Amino acid sequence: MNVAKDGLIIWNARTGEADKVLTILTDEGLVTAYARGCLRPNGRLTSATTMLSFSNFELASGKNMFTVVNAESQQKFLSIYGDAVSYALATYFCEVIRLLMPSGEETKEYLNIMMNMLHLLNTKAKPQWQIKAVFELTMMTLSGYMPNVSACSSCGSEQSSSVFFDYFTGSWYCSDCSARKGVPADIPFSAIRAVQYVITSEPRRAMAFDLKPPAREAFCYIAERFLLTHIEHDVQTLNYYNALIST
Ligand SMILES: [Zn+2]
To answer: Residue 113: which domain range?
Structure first.
């Protein structure tokens, strides 16, 4: 029996002469599907089975995976395709989803966040540093690793000019406690405030803030490093993105 599903293509691999295996993010989890002939130019499935295409799929169930019977593109993020840096960031987001998304749970929120981030990247409505860091912090929070940043984890103080951030626990020490423990309080406090703001805001308000350097760099560093510390995995797409923006 065939099933209909809407979903975003977050990974694809060529197989055979003109076929692809797709990973599709749906609101019921990740779906793997075989798309026959979709690499042929002007093929019936070609347009709706490209990376980052949000499509409506008709799928036939098979032994190991679904087969795409029909696909119709619903939404494409065309400006992302045309910009190597945006595309690299979007593929990093896709890899994070694949690494962090739990199986067998409600996954609608992951799809909503991903669609929202791609929309912002596509329209350039927000700067890339902010889209990336908010995505990282939101994904960590959603996956059960919400940073605990409301107060110094040693003395409970809610203020400090600068702090030490512990990437394993996602918490911080104020400058006095950092000095006592012999660790550097090198993170401006406004970066911690921004982390707090992002993880406690409704998704649609999560980017309603600004940060100037050097707090901006510290905030971005916390978001990326906190995620990497917990993924314990080399993230190739992130390495590629970081190499692109540093040239
Ligand atoms: Zn303290």
So the answer is: 79-147+188-245
